[in-house]
Amino acid sequence: MHFILILQFVALLTLANGTPVVAKRLLGAFHNYPLDGGAVIFDGRPLFGPSKTIRGIILSIVVTTSFAPVLALDWKSGLVAATMAMIGDLCSSFAKRRLNFQSSSRATALDQIPESLLPALACRSMLGFTAIDIAAVVIIFFIGEIMLSRLLFKWHVRDRPF
After folding, report:
1. I want to staple 64 with a disulfide (CB 3.0 to 4.6 A). Which of 16, 102, 104, 140 is the partner?
2. What are the Cα distances from residue 162, in Å, to 17, 74, 104, 131, 134?
3. CB neighbourhood size of 82 (10 A)
């Protein structure tokens, strides 16, 4: 049944996107190097910003790939999903910097759609996703991420409630 597969995949995406947040809380400044090295580009703004770290991306890929089998998914799906989720997150950060949003600021839809759509598209043939399945992944992730973010703030894992 595709619905179960969709939920498994959304759980995988939640893990991929949540790992850097949890790593920040657990590890603090330990190996917390910005991916862009603090680079400022043509518009005078950071490429991605200080919250996009090498540590977060590496841990997301390693943890998600490792835990994919726990969710009854192939490790390759975990690798592709995490990699594409991180690329989606970087695209969001890049766009937010161009729109003059501060690092870690909220941009509803821009914060959720690339992080779920890109992985779902990349994994569509591996998982047999249809266009409806991909839309369901994005919608469920979108709603779930907003709800989970508030819980993580309440539990002092996130710095902000979004």
Report:
1. 16
2. 13, 30, 9, 28, 23
3. 28
What is the tens place of the pLDDT at every residue in 34-65?
999 999 999 999 999 998 999 999 999 999 99
DSSP symbols for the chain: -HHHHHHHHHHHHHHHHHHHHHHHHHHTTTT--BTTTT-B-TTSSBSS-TTSBHHHHHHHHHHHHHHGGGGT--HHHHHHHHHHHHHHHHHHHHHHHHTTPPTT---TTTTTHHHHHHHHHHTHHHHT--HHHHHHHHHHHHHHHHHHHHHHHHTTSSSS--
What the block records as the tokens of 130 is 């249809």
Residues 139, 142, 107, 67, CA torsion sign: negative
What are the residues whose beta carbons fall under 8 Å from the beta carbon of 52, sequence distance 6 or more?
34, 35, 36, 89, 90, 93
What residues does each domain of the chain span?
2-154
Name the pLDDT band for 21 (thresholds 50, 70, 90).
Answer: confident
Q: Cα–chain-centroid distance for residue 91?
A: 11
Phi first, then psi: what are they for 108, rounded to 5°? -55, 140
Residue type for position 88: G
- Of 29, 47, 22, which Cα lies nearest the Cα of 37? 47
